[in-house]
Amino acid sequence: MSQRISRRWTMTRFKIVVEYDGTGYHGWQLQKDLPTVQGEIERALERILRRATRVHGAGRTDAGVHAVGQTAHFDAEWKHPPEALQAGCNSLLPAEITLLLIEAVPDSFHARHSAVLKTYVYRIFNSKVRSSLNRLYAWHLPHHLDAPAMSEAAHHLLGSHDFAAFGAPTDGTPSTVREMTAATWVQCSDPGLLEFSITGSGFLRYMVRSLVGTLVQVGMGRITPSDFLDILKSCQRSRSGPTAPANGLCLQSVEYDHV
How much is the average pLDDT of 132-143? Predict the structure, then answer.
C-alpha cells in the first residue's frame, strides 16, 4: 500500500496595488456588516486560497474616498505565478475594485510600516453649473476660487509641522507631527477642474479633507494665506475650516525605499 505524502507550500508575502471607486463603500478597513474594500479583497482571496487571509493596507481611506494607488500586503501559500492570483481576484472582485499589480516581496515588507511617502489628490469642480460626469469624483463649488491665493497658503504646509489643527492621530501613532514634501494646486486641462496634490510622510485622520476645506476658505477670500498659517500654528482643530466632502479625495500613490 503506497503511502500518501502531503506537500506543504511555504508562505509567500505578496504586495498588491489596488484601484477602487469608494463611492459605495464604507472605507478601506473592515467593518462589521458594512461593505469595505478590504473586506471584498479578503473575500475574493478566501475563495481562491480556501482559507481566511488577512490583507494589511498602507492606510485607511474614509467612506466615499477613492484610490488609484492603495498598497497592501498579505501572506499566502501559492505555487502559481502571481499574475494568476491577480487574474483570479479580479474575476471575483466587484467592478469598482481592481488589483493593478501583484508581486512577491520579502517577508520584511509591510504595506504600512515600510511606506516612506504617500500622495493624495483632491479634485474640485469650480463652475457655476454642476457636472454630471464629475459628481462622484470632485467637489462641486460654484463660487469663484482664487487659485493663486490657495497656492500661496498651501506653500506653508511644506516641511515638518504639528497638524493637530487639521486632523486626529491615527491608531498606533499618537503624534500629530508630519512632514510634507509637496503641496500644490493645479488647474487641469478640463475647464473648471482644480487639483490639490499633497505628498508627505504620513497623514492624520481627515487631514487632507480638512486642509482642502480650509484652503477653500482662502480661495473664497474669507481668510488670507497668513490666516491659514496662523491656523496651522495654533494646533486648534476648532479654528480650521469645514471638512471637504469625501468624494473629491483620491489616494494617488504610496512609495517605498526598497521593494
Answer: 96
The string of DSSP codes covering 11-25 is PEEEEEEEEE-GGGS
Give Cβ neighbours of residue 63 (< 8 Å, ≥ 6 apart). 22, 25, 26, 27, 246
Pairing of strands 177-187, 159-162: antiparallel
**Whether residue 189 has pLDDT greater than 90:** no
**Sequence-distant (≥ 6) Cβ neighbours of residue 114 within 8 angstroms:** 108, 256, 257, 259
pLDDT at 6 over 60: no
Q: Which of 3.20.20.450, 3.40.190.10, 3.30.70.660, 3.40.50.12780 would CATH assign to domain 115-256?
A: 3.30.70.660
Asked if pLDDT for residue 61 goes beyond 80, the answer is yes
Are both 12-105 and 115-256 of the same fold?
Answer: yes
3-state secondary structure of 117: strand
Q: Using N-to-C axis directions, what is the helix angle for 82-92 and 37-49, rounded to 10°?
A: 120
- Residues assigned a catalytic role: 62
pLDDT band at 9 (very low <50, low <70, confident <90, very high): low
Alpha helices (runs of H) in 120-237, residue ranges in sequence order: 147-154, 207-219, 225-234
pTM for the full model?
A: 0.93
